[in-house]
Specification:
single chain; mainly alpha; five-stranded mixed β-sheet; 7 strands
């Protein structure tokens, strides 16, 4: 009991540090964070809890569950700020982290669960993206919960219906978070059950009850949303949004080349990705003793990876649902008592590769070569050298302990080094990157110039950061020069945010002397402000 409590206390303490430390320490960044924050705020201000809106227009791209939870957070804590907007995502990441511990305990044992949860929490992307106002941490939580209960129902015949109903409920919540992509877990489990020759254990009436419940959960929102949004809304969210990313691609759906994830995932799952091939190969061997469990995790990982690789639209965060599978495989293989020769054959190359990679990066940074091509790296040189130094130290220490066959010490050395990196990123990078990624300062400069009765508009651009940080309920985006001229000839003072390259063209076409009174850069975009008085 004491050991069990120690494990639980350890993962809770580590999870709180990695998912909540300095959570409100930076501004909301463009474009996703401010967009979702504005949608949630507008939902509360308008009282329309069914159809999400962005700047007065229906926002059909995403279902509403995250926006509901953001409003719950801001209402319970009594303030709308960076922390309260991020809290639902951070909580989802934290609960996912805890759930991986219990899933690993169910698949392997308690120590494997501990290892797996720590792998997830210290890989590069998962804890960082969980601290953003994004859909993916919440979606991954519901995906994992549904898959967890499907697995329990598959394994435990006496409680199968109960577990499948739980799975259906969480499937419904997953759809309300990011859409029907939640149902990918059905083919994942079908493939696994088929390989296990247990298709009837999965595909049966109990599963039907779970699926029916998931549809009911979705229809509670979908029916009034379809009625209020009309045909165009239904067409967009049911066909364009669902199918566009996976079939058509298009600029809106982030088209990327076929090999995109083969590059991005290994980088974003560092350092643990170096052990993933070993985990798959050794885990699927009969002598492993956990071949069925590793088969389940391998099918889960492979299906998600291939599905999104074959899709036209790609973003790094689309792969979030496979991160727990990768973490569980690596945590499981670190814990299993395999023959030392087999472990060394698989793990030593991974550790040596990691040491080599860190050494190369350290030498490059010391040489100044990257800074010549990217001068902005000069501002981060000291931080980079510090992080690489203790990453290299932790990896070398892990290698030493592994050679000495002290597996727990080897794992903890590597985990501790990368946990420190996560905390350092959360503490040191926000103040450096805020001026580049946030609209807060630019918005404050504009507000300083405005008086009661003045209006703020944009010209052929949409910036949700301006909406959030100026706290304006609506900001007109001027779409043609006639409307621009009309506003500039009005008696009311108007401020217009515009791209710098558009100013000269408007000056020539309208004959209005436009003089920028403020300049700013938000993300990748440069803006200027012009006014008629």
């Amino acid at each position: 009991m004491d050991v069990r409590r120690g494990y639980v206390f350890a993962i809770i303490a580590i999870g709180i540090a990695l998912f909540f430390f300095n959570l409100g320490g930076r501004d909301l960044w463009e474009p996703d964070e401010t967009r979702y924050a504005v949608i949630a705020r507008e939902m509360k201000e308008t009282g329309d809890w069914i159809l999400p809106h962005l700047n007065g227009e229906i926002y059909p791209n995403k279902p509403p569950l995250l926006f509901w939870l953001i409003n719950l957070s801001t209402s319970l804590l009594g303030v709308n700020n960076e922390f309260t907007n991020r809290l639902p995502s951070a909580l989802a990441g934290f609960v996912t982290f805890l759930l991986v511990f219990f899933f690993g305990k169910r698949l392997f044992n308690m120590r494997a669960g501990l290892f797996s949860s720590l792998v997830l929490a210290t890989c590069f992307l998962f804890p960082q993206l969980s601290r953003w106002v994004m859909l993916d941490a919440l979606f991954t939580l519901f995906f994992l919960l549904a898959l967890f209960y499907l697995y329990l129902g598959y394994e435990e015949e006496g409680s199968r219906r109960k577990y499948y109903i739980f799975a259906g409920f969480f499937m419904g919540l997953g759809v309300l978070t990011k859409g029907p992509i939640e149902y990918l877990l059905i083919p994942i489990f079908l493939i696994f059950a088929s390989l296990q020759r247990g298709i009837k254990k999965f595909w049966n009436r109990n599963l039907l009850w779970g699926c029916v419940l998931s549809v009911i959960v979705v229809l509670i929102w979908w029916l009034p949303a379809a009625w209020m949004g009309g045909k165009d809304y239904v067409n967009w969210i049911l066909f364009k949004q669902v199918l566009g990313a996976f079939i058509k691609g298009g600029a809106h759906f982030h088209p990327e080349p076929f090999y995109f994830y083969f590059i991005r995932f290994p980088l974003e799952f560092l350092p643990w990705v170096v052990f993933l091939p070993t985990a798959v190969i050794l885990g699927l061997r009969k002598e492993c003793g956990k071949r069925k469990e590793f088969l389940f995790l391998s099918v889960w990982f492979t299906f998600i990876f291939l599905f999104f690789t074959l899709s036209k639209g790609k973003k790094a965060n689309y792969l979030f649902p496979l991160y727990p599978a990768a973490a569980l495989m690596i945590g499981g293989i670190w814990d299993l008592g395999l023959p030392s020769k087999e472990q060394k054959k698989g793990f030593l190359p991974g550790l040596l590769l990691l040491v080599s990679l860190l050494l190369v990066l350290l030498i490059l940074l010391l040489s100044g070569i990257p800074q010549k091509f990217y001068p902005e790296l000069m501002d981060y040189q000291l931080l980079g050298l510090t992080m690489l130094s203790y990453l290299l130290g932790g990896t070398l220490l892990s290698l030493f302990f592994f050679v000495k066959e002290k597996k727990l010490a080897a794992f903890m050395s590597l985990m501790a080094a990368f946990a420190l990196v996560q905390l350092q990123i959360c503490h040191f990078l926000p103040p450096r990157l805020n001026p580049q990624r946030s609209a807060k300062v630019f918005s404050a400069k504009i507000l300083e110039r405005m008086e009661n009765g003045d209006e703020l508009k944009t010209y052929r651009l949409k910036n949700s950061g301006l909406l959030y940080y100026t706290k304006m309920p609506y900001m007109e985006s001027i779409q043609n020069k006639d409307r621009f001229v009309e506003l500039f000839n009005s008696s009311k003072r108007v401020f217009v945010v515009i791209y710098p390259e558009v100013v000269d063209r408007l000056r020539r076409e309208t004959g209005i002397e436009l003089v920028p009174i403020e300049k700013g850069k938000v993300g990748h975009w440069d803006y200027v402000v012009v006014s008629n008085h």
